[in-house]
Amino acid sequence: MVNMSEPEAKEISEKEKEQKEEKERDSTKSPKKTPPGSAKGSSKGSARKLSSAKSGTITPKSPAPKLGRGTPQKGKKKEDSKAETPAPPDEEENTGPPENVVPIFLASKTQAIYHCVCDEDVTKENPFKIVTKEEILEDLHNRAAICDFHPMKDKIINYPGTELLLVYDFDFKYGQNFCIALTEEAKELLLNPPGQEGEEGEGGAQGEEEDTTVYKYVPPESKEWVSLGSQKEIKEESVTEMRRRVCFLKVHLHKSEPGGDHAPTKFSIAETQGERGALSKATEGGVSDKEASVSGGYYSSGKPGSGKEKRTLQSVKTHFYVGTEDGEIVYVDWMPQKDQDTGKIQTPKPDFYHTVHDGPLATVQRSPFFKDVVLCVGGWNFTIWKEGVIIDKNNPNAAEMAKLIDPTENAALKSGPILQSAPNPVRLTSGHWSPSRPGVFYISKVDGSVDVWDLLDKTHEPSITQSVSPVAITSIYPFPVSHKQHLLAVGDNAGTLHILEIPWSLRLSTPNELTGVANYIEREVKRRSFVVQRWDFRETEKREIEAEAKRKAGIAPNVILTDEEVEYRQKNEYQAYVEVETNFLRELGILKEDAEPLPET
Fold it and tell me: Structure pTM?
């Protein structure tokens, strides 16, 4: 025995007490079913340790707790200690590796050979590595006694399988950095511990249970409505129609010749929303404008009645201009009429259409000062039209004059622009009338510039050309902010909005400018009428020259037959055709001749 001082003995006794308390806590967490008398033996053993500590002898320390087990901390709640999973008793008693599992130290070179480098190929979370038996035997043959598997060479040779399991011991639980399973049973035990198999089995058994409940559909039964006052709220919140619904009319843009319909892009109609001039004229008999507007384009003589009492507003203009993708200007009537061919009520065919633009129409706008003057912009030129300027349909040479105006069309009733610009080197994108000057309008182009045209100044070229943007301009809009300031908004293809101030010379109208523009339009209409008369005169003169030439050549002139003569000639031709047909059928034996009647006595 070794004699010890009192401080040392006290220190050793305190350590023994702490070990005892820790062992008691472990025993309370994982109670063991021990035979009777074992508890007494343990208490006696502890008593002996205490007595030996008091006498100054050093007793052997209890075995170290197994790696991976957490030591309970002081001050921890009882609920936390109860929640911890108790360790199986075998782990406390047996601290060594499982049966047929041998710890082994693998050097870094060996780890690199078998691709099981610590913390790279194998980690604490994924410690398993499968190594083939053939690889180990080849390594034993090459390195012999230097190989880390040499101490267990015989067991590896006698291993029944072809793959061995290496387990990375991160905490050096069994004294080495790896463990190797030398039997298939040990391999399965490490891969599938008993506790996990039981949990998985229970979970699988629960998952495999099928629900045998049979559900039967029970249709709901209708119940009697019980009013709780909600219908009043619904009635108050509901929207009721106070005026008649607006009926939309579909206008067909059929072409005169076969080939489909026109493809509209822009249109311009004389009446605009909010104008009540036509309604005031129609309701002079005493019906208010409000009542007339409710009737939706019709007016009645008093109270609302049947459709027979309603009459169409005669003062409303039903014709409008349409611009198409093919550069055509179409003039059509939207009022439905009865078709002479089919007998259906539908919109009539266009009165006329001209292909005067070499690109899609981008602008069709009426002048704010003259409602019957329309500005059209499309392609590389622009035109100005005067509504109502047509060729007289009573003129016998109307068809020939129409062909001279536009050889591509065949309609007898035609119209044309009073002003048509020369083709511009740059394509035009849009146009807009000036809101303050009757003879001024703006034209935008692809090169980013804006042309200002003044009809009283020049008609063959723009008065001003202003460069605005380096890219194509898409739209322009002049806006009068006040009497002293007018602005021009210009939008380009890059998404930039440019605001320009219009100078006073382009915003203030000159004295009698409205009258001057009206006189200019009237002169252009007369000029166009004179041109049509000259075409008529030239066509008549041409016919006379051709007839004189035929007379001199001895060719009989073309005789113009009357309607009665034409009808008589057609009747004779028909009778001749019937006789030829009868003879042909008789020769084929299809037509049987009737027996001649006997002479009367």
Answer: 0.48
